[in-house]
Design goal:
This protein has 250 residues and is of the alpha/beta class. It is built from 7 helices and 10 strands. It has a 5-stranded mixed beta sheet with strand order 3-2-1-4-5, sandwiched between helices. A 5-stranded mixed beta sheet has the order 8-7-6-9-10, sandwiched between helices. Strand 4, helix 2 and strand 5 form a beta-alpha-beta unit. Helix 3 crosses helix 7. It is globular and about 55 Å long.
């Protein structure tokens, strides 16, 4: 079975594949202070009932990349693949500096390339909200990066003296009748409007309508406040992209 690992700034998402079928997923906090031995114990516990014989991981947290790779290799007795732009990606990265492309964004682009019509725009609602753009020829041509929902909420709380720290929830109406509702309106509805506007501008530069694919934990929530809904919502697109990349590089 193939284990795919997406190490993000907030959490580590793990998915176990049996051929093309995603059998199970798990989520761990991205803890830079946790020693390798502790990660090995967690991996032993999570996957004791699975026969893992291959693994690929994408990481945007340098401090965790090798720690987690070594933990995977020790637990499952294999040589896991760490995603970078030097691998066979199956697509062309047409950025001015391809090494700037985060591993998660490469995996998203590859997942969209394999699974959806082109051109495609992947909107990943994580710690940051990122757009990954695939043109009609299947090239990864760039994207957009903006602060994610939780990052906006933390910034409002930490950079002001009176705005409270709140959790993400639905925004009942645009005009907030108290501070918390006003913040939710600005962050949730504001992000939805920004995403919708950016999609329109990206399509203008692409010269055609695109297939819009959302991934990340808040994609369903955000879509409620958009006139144009996402064409597809795939919470595990990054893992699907990693599965494709493993097949190219095994």
């Amino acid at each position: 079975m193939l284990l795919t690992v997406d190490i993000g700034n907030t959490s580590i998402t793990l998915g176990i594949f049996d051929n093309e079928n995603l059998v199970e997923t798990f989520r761990l906090p991205s803890d830079k202070e946790l020693p390798q031995e502790e990660y090995e114990i967690l991996l032993h516990t999570l996957f004791e009932n699975y026969s893992v014989n291959s693994c690929i991981l994408a990481s945007v947290v340098d401090e965790l990349s090798l720690t987690f790779k070594h933990a995977l290799d020790n637990v499952f007795h294999l040589n896991s693949i760490l995603l970078s732009d030097s691998l066979n990606l199956g697509i062309k990265i047409k950025l001015k500096n391809p090494k700037e492309a985060g591993a998660d964004r490469i995996a998203n682009a590859c997942g969209a390339y394999v699974l959806y019509p082109k051109p495609a725009i992947v909107v990943d609602l994580g710690t940051a909200t990122t757009f990954d753009i695939i043109d009609k020829d299947g090239n990864f041509v760039g994207g957009v990066i903006m602060p994610g929902l939780n990052l906006q909420l933390r910034a409002l709380n930490s950079a002001t003296s009176k705005l409270p720290k709140i959790e993400i929830s639905e925004s009942e109406k645009v005009i907030g009748d108290n501070t918390c509702n006003a913040i939710l309106s600005g962050v949730i509805r504001g992000s939805a409007s920004a995403i919708e506007g950016l999609i329109e501008q990206c399509e203008k530069e692409l010269g055609s309508k695109a297939c819009i694919v959302a991934t990340g934990g808040y994609s369903t929530l955000i879509s409620k406040y958009m006139k144009r809904r996402f064409d597809f919502v795939n919470p595990y697109l990054t893992l699907e992209g990693l599965r494709f990349l493993y097949q190219l590089n095994k």
